[in-house]
Design brief:
The complex is a heterodimer. Chain A has a single domain (about 40-345), classed as ABC transporter involved in vitamin B12 uptake, BtuC. Helix content of chain A is about 75%, strand content about 0%. Chain A contains 17 helices and four strands. In chain A, helix 1 (about 1-15) packs parallel to helix 17, helix 3 packs parallel to helix 16 and helix 5 (about 65-90) runs antiparallel to helix 14. Chain B is an alpha/beta fold. In chain B, helix 13 crosses helix 14. Chain B starts with 17 loop residues before the first strand and ends with a helix. The chains are: A mainly alpha, B alpha/beta. At the A-B interface, helix 1, helix 2, helix 12 and helix 13 of A face strand 2, helix 10, helix 11 and strand 20 of B.
Chain lengths: ~350, ~500
């Protein structure tokens, strides 16, 4: 029914919203159910549940155990933090291909002998601060070039992707830098009440991201800038500054992700964060954020991340190879975007 | 009083080119078309009138094959036909020129005309031949100066329209539907478009012409069909003889003319906006004028005369190269929209959809966009306050439907314009710059917008209005400025000048 319903529903919107005279009854109800914000996430919930059912059937107790659940969440947390940042950039009408490279550079910079010595002498937070600052600086370069240099986000962040990873290799001399600051690993890599700190960080970032996007002027302006930059500019919003801030924000998220990776792997290397840009964009897009900007959902992004991570887990538990997994990922992305387009059409934007 | 059914039957023995009868189109929950009748004869210019939402767009989409009707018959050249898709419509000889022209900017004129049915031999495009036959079509349209081999992106809106018409002719169209073709044209270009339309009609091509401008319909139309609420309120009316009041009554169900509100006498406040020596080389030079609180100043001029550029420069959306803008004694920094907004200046730009509205956001969010700070504490938006304030504005401006949660895209042009106005009222601006405030606004809503602008002035706001319609500039303003070729050529009270004088100056560039 979905194709039929959405096609007619899209036409309904174009007819200038005349008052409804004859109601479509239950059909209309179904349409409303799937087109509302709850409906969007409903689809994602169903997808995630289906995956869990598959996991339960194929791997049984190994899948549903508390430890495995925490494994999934721990894996999801690093890419999740990056994806929350990515949601903002995409909602604001941009894209950031350099997130993986920024994660690598931040992780390397925060784990050099110099940084670690300083951290050991003073406080382990030095490493965290370093990673966050490196991420913010990369984001600032991206944002400044895009907003004030008027370059295409795709090109600028593509350059950053190459440049930042290259710089990470130079700094680390392609070696793995083991983290020796034990407090750092103990705290960030530890658990509170049995829940990994990584997962708690992800949860905090997701909640903060949701509030930032949905309840603050910053979020409102992000939606306006992504939805219609010219209208935002003529309404007196400083679009250039806002765009720059969005890239700084995703940079900071990458810095935080680097901190989490350092704790999880107890090492910094220039190969951290490989292909994170693709995983993050995929999670954001299947979550329902419009790639063209103007509409974003943090909840959707979190679901997107969980779906991909659960998929990986189910495949791993069943000893299936990563190639099959990649194919499954591809299929999920295509199906999700097809669904998203239908929703976009229903909301009246041109198909 | 409800609309009367007025039927004028075609003369005996003359089968019309197109006869649509009882066309019904349902969308879930809405009957967009509820039994439309339309008869178009070959060589006729048939005007389609109706308020936004009356069903004009849906009707032409049915005709173009983009929608399938749920009921009714379409008789084309004496045969009952079904138009199953857009290609089918083109094959029958029905071409539609939409408001947003569907041309590819990067291709040449000839390539656009033959897009989809290229002149080709063995798969290789025969460019010389395409250029030759494109040139022939353009000559037929009376526009031989449009070169077939230049890129369409370099043409003006008027030029693009000509290319669209040439494309329609290249399909050997017998009926061309034009959806508000004059909306993007200035008066001179409209005059030339009308020349083309008359020429086509004389060659036996039928034109269905949609416009909001009654005076155009008088000039170009043979017959008029008025739609209201998805029904045909009247069809086959003689365009030249039917009184305006009758047409408006049919469209609205009420009886109104373009009524310009009374100018408020006397009681000018102090000068709020002072523009002095403002210039941008190549656009306009040395423009100086002042606007007092409570005053409406109209800027008349052709498209390209610099009138919109002047507004945007005052607002800081373009950076002034010379001169100053002062608001209530404070000089604005050139090229800073933020500074202008902070000083209490608001702009309702020319292109509502692309420049003013965030279309898939709600009415409330569009209204609050420029004054978000007012509803925020520590960066958090108080949504209840925001909604209440938007609600107040929606009520005050009578936006319909009065639902601030609605997506702004679902509103009609007039109501969208009110939303943009509401944005600046909420901001409590002192200077309001309005660029084409009634473009795409239907007749009924226009008078409301006029009255609204007057009310705003009466509340002490200094208003500057730019419009292509001279009647509107004169009727609405206290003072009229005329811009020609980037220069301010006239400045006088509105009641000391008439439409012809303004038109003279606009065309000639000299003070009368």
């Amino acid at each position: 029914m979905s194709a039929q319903t959405s096609a007619t529903a899209s036409e309904e919107r174009t007819s200038a919203g005349a008052p409804s005279r004859d109601s479509g009854g239950s059909l209309r109800g179904m349409t409303a159910l799937f087109s509302g914000p709850a409906g969007r996430n409903l689809g994602l919930v169903i997808a995630l549940l289906l995956l869990c059912v598959v996991g339960l059937i194929t791997a049984g107790d190994r899948f549903v155990s508390f430890d495995n659940m925490m494994t999934i969440l721990r894996l999801a947390s690093v890419i999740g933090v990056v994806s929350v940042g990515m949601t903002f950039v995409i909602t604001g009408g941009g894209i950031d291909l350099s997130v993986g490279a920024i994660v690598a550079l931040s992780s390397v910079w925060a784990s050099t002998i110099a940084t670690q010595t300083l951290a050991a002498d003073t406080h382990w937070l030095v490493m965290v601060t370093t990673a966050l600052l490196v991420g913010a600086a990369c984001g600032l370069v991206n944002g400044t070039l895009i907003a004030y240099g008027r370059m295409a986000p795709f090109i600028v962040t593509l350059a950053m992707l190459a440049g930042a990873r290259g710089l990470a290799e130079i700094i680390a001399q392609k070696r793995t830098q083991v983290v020796t600051v034990n407090e750092f690993i103990d705290v960030i890599g530890g658990r509170i009440l049995g829940i990994p700190v990584l997962v708690i960080i992800f949860a905090v970032v997701a909640v903060a991201g949701w509030i930032l996007l949905n309840r603050t002027t910053f979020g409102r302006r992000t939606l306006a800038v992504g939805g219609n930059p010219e209208a935002a500019r003529l309404a007196g919003i400083n679009v250039k500054r806002h765009t720059t801030l969005l890239y700084v924000l995703v940079g900071v998220a990458c810095g935080l992700a680097a901190v989490m990776l350092l704790a999880r792997t107890t090492a910094g290397t220039s190969t951290h964060g490989m292909l994170y840009e693709l995983d993050a964009i995929a999670a954001v897009v299947i979550g329902g954020t419009l790639l063209s900007g103007g509409r974003g959902t943090i909840v959707g992004t979190v679901f997107g991340v969980l779906i991909f991570t659960t998929l990986t887990n189910v495949f791993t538990l069943n000893n299936l190879d990563t190639s099959t997994q990649a194919v499954a990922k591809g299929v999920i992305i295509v199906v999700a975007v097809l669904l998203q387009q239908r929703v976009a059409a229903r909301n009246g934007s041109p198909p | 009083m409800g609309p009367r059914e007025i039927q004028v039957t075609a003369p005996e023995g003359q089968e019309p080119l197109l006869r649509m009868s009882g066309i019904v189109k349902r969308f879930p929950g809405v009957k967009a078309l509820d039994g439309i009748d339309l008869e178009v004869r070959a060589g006729d210019v048939h005007c389609l009138l109706g308020q936004n939402g009356a069903g004009k767009s849906t009707l032409i989409k049915v005709l173009a094959g983009a929608h399938q009707p749920d009921g009714g018959t379409i008789r084309w050249q004496g045969d009952d036909i079904r138009i199953v898709n857009p290609q089918d419509a083109i094959d029958h000889g029905i071409a539609t020129i939409y408001q947003e022209l569907d041309l590819v900017d990067g291709l040449t004129v000839a390539e656009n005309i033959y897009l989809g049915h290229e002149r080709a031999r063995w798969g290789v495009v025969a460019r010389a031949e395409a250029n030759r036959s494109a040139a022939a079509l353009l000559r037929r349209l009376g526009h031989p100066e449009v070169a077939p081999d230049i890129e369409v992106g370099r043409l003006s809106s008027a030029g693009k329209q000509i290319v669209s018409m040439a494309r329609a002719l290249s399909h050997d169209a017998k009926l061309i539907v034009m959806d508000e073709p004059s909306a993007v044209l200035d008066q001179e270009e409209v005059a030339r478009l009308f020349g083309v339309i008359r020429e086509l009609a004389a060659q036996g091509v039928a034109i269905v012409y949609i416009s909001h401008r009654l005076e155009e319909i008088r000039e170009i139309g043979d017959r008029v069909t008025v739609l209201k609420d998805g029904r045909t309120a009247a069809t086959g009316l003689a365009a030249a003889e039917t009184p305006t009041s009758e047409i408006i009554r049919l469209m609205t169900g009420r009886s109104i003319e373009y009524v310009f509100p009374e100018r408020s006498e006397g009681q000018r406040g102090e000068t709020v906006l002072e523009v002095s020596g403002l210039g941008r080389p190549g656009e306009f030079d040395d423009v100086s004028f002042t606007v007092a609180a409570g005053e409406v100043v109209g800027l008349a001029g052709l498209v390209g005369s610099g009138r919109s550029e002047i507004l945007e420069t005052i607002y800081g959306a373009r950076k002034a190269k010379a001169g100053t803008v002062t608001v209530a004694g404070r000089r604005l920094r050139a090229g800073r929209v933020g500074a202008a907004v902070a000083a209490g200046v608001g702009l309702c730009p020319e292109e509502r959809k692309s420049q003013a509205l965030v279309l898939h956001e709600s009415v409330a969010r569009n209204i609050s966009l420029a004054s978000l700070g007012r509803f925020a504490r520590g960066g958090f938006v108080n949504r209840r306050d925001e909604r209440r304030a938007a609600d107040d504005q929606v009520r005050a401006l009578d936006v319909r439907p009065a639902d601030v949660q609605r997506h702004v895209r679902t509103l009609s042009g007039g109501n969208q314009q009110k939303v943009v106005l509401a944005r600046w009222l909420l901001r409590e601006c002192r200077v309001l710059l309005l660029d084409e405030p009634t473009r795409g606004v239907d007749v009924g809503a226009r008078s409301e917008i006029y009255a609204l602008i007057r009310d705003l002035a009466a509340s002490g706001i200094a208003v500057v209005v730019v419009s292509s319609e001279i009647e509107e500039v004169i009727g609405l303003s206290d003072r009229v400025l005329v811009i020609s070729d980037g220069a301010l050529v006239h400045d006088s009270p509105a009641d000391e000048i008439d439409e012809h004088q303004v038109l003279d100056m606009v065309m000639e560039g000299e003070a009368a």
